[in-house]
Automatic annotation (TrEMBL):
Protein name, as recorded: YqbQ/XkdQ domain-containing protein
Alphabetized InterPro entries for the sequence: YqbQ/XkdQ (IPR056937)
Domain YqbQ/XkdQ, residue spans: 27-228, 246-347
UniProt-listed Pfam families: YQBQ (PF24032)
Length: 350
């Protein structure tokens, strides 16, 4: 196993540079299922009259003759050791572009196709969605945020989780699990270490949904002379004309965890039933522990977000997490001269 192709080229130039000759550090490749671009970081030795990395340079990286990464340099650091530390991103970086769009009734497949065209990237719908989303206005949002809202609505309606993946320069719309790995990760099988965390830091067991109502101002007679108000008087009048309508939902974990409260705004014309439902829905999603499982393992290129792997670890089984397929949500691959390892984050529900 080794780096079989690692090349850079400045757009508009015919010169191609083989970066294997000046590679100083391991190569790290990080991908995440939650709306972020794939990232490649590496260190290069400065060579007199040789290659100097520049922002916008194209990067291609293959491992053991398999395609891994295609993208552009976005950041270059240089220090006293005469080493360049380079950060490149794949084509998903252009989904951070912001725009204002009016969405008609449409599916996430259609919305994905439109923003991919607007971002100017190659794209492919691998897994199509037929669920129709309501018309809406997306004002001054990134393409990532637009799709995040659409993906969330589709998931709530259908139970299907869609995600984006850069397949060597082609952005693909996929549905998870995209692939189940044929091998397992665990004791005596690839894994070299793990950490498991249970947390209520992001939990909430009291949800208040608040609607702000303002009284209509009384009209002033045309014959009456309006007194000029000070800023303090205007503020006091505004407070006096404002009322808050509140609906609260509480969970059964208050006694055990203490009161963990969040507040959400209701739509201006939301009625009590709608506010109550919103509070209950948010409480259901927030009134729970979150679990994080991180695995350190000998790696294959199939260990990418959106794929599932069977995890078998005896000591995890002892604390209630038995052998099961878990979704990879984030992967950081490290490519050495002849070694390939990965740090994986897995989606855990107990």
């Amino acid at each position: 196993m080794t780096v079989t192709f690692f090349q850079s080229q400045t757009p508009g130039s015919k010169t191609k540079w083989d970066l294997r000759e000046i590679l100083k550090t391991d190569i790290k490749w990080t991908t995440d299922i939650d709306f972020s671009a794939g990232q490649l970081t590496f260190g290069l030795v400065e060579v007199d009259e040789g290659y100097t990395p520049k922002n916008g340079d194209n990067i291609w990286f293959n491992w053991n003759h398999d395609h891994v990464f295609k993208g552009k340099i976005f950041k270059v650091d240089y220090d006293e050791s005469e080493t360049f530390t380079v950060t490149a991103y794949d084509s998903l970086r252009y989904f951070k572009n912001q725009d204002s769009l009016i969405w008609p009734v449409s599916t996430i497949s259609q919305r994905f196709t439109k923003v991919a065209k607007l971002a100017g990237v190659k794209h492919k719908v691998v897994d199509k969605s037929t669920h129709k989303l309501v018309a809406e206005v997306a004002d001054s949002k990134s393409y990532f945020d637009m799709l995040k809202d659409s993906f969330k609505s589709t998931r709530l309606a259908t139970g299907h989780r869609y995600f984006l993946h850069d397949n060597y320069g082609v952005i693909e719309l996929r549905r998870s699990p995209y692939k189940k790995l044929k091998y397992f990760i665990g004791d005596q099988s690839l894994m070299t270490g793990f950490s498991f965390t249970k947390s209520i830091d992001e939990a909430a067991n009291v949800v208040r949904v608040v609607r702000t109502d303002k009284k209509k101002k009384q009209k002033t007679s045309s014959t009456a002379k309006a007194k000029k108000q000070t800023a303090a008087q205007k503020k006091a009048a505004d407070v006096a004309n404002t009322k808050l309508k509140t609906v609260t939902a509480s969970g059964g974990s208050v006694e055990r965890w203490g009161k963990l409260q969040i507040v959400e705004k209701a739509k201006d014309k939301a009625n009590a039933a709608q506010m109550k439902k919103k509070a209950a829905d948010i409480l259901k999603s927030k009134n729970k522990q979150t679990y994080t499982l991180k695995l350190t393992t000998l790696a294959t290129l199939s260990m990418v977000p959106g794929n599932q792997a069977m995890v078998k670890v005896k000591s995890l089984k002892d604390i209630g997490l038995g052998s099961k397929y878990l979704l990879i949500t984030k992967a950081t691959h490290t490519f050495g001269r002849t070694s390939h390892t990965a740090d994986l984050e897995m989606k855990v529900r107990i």
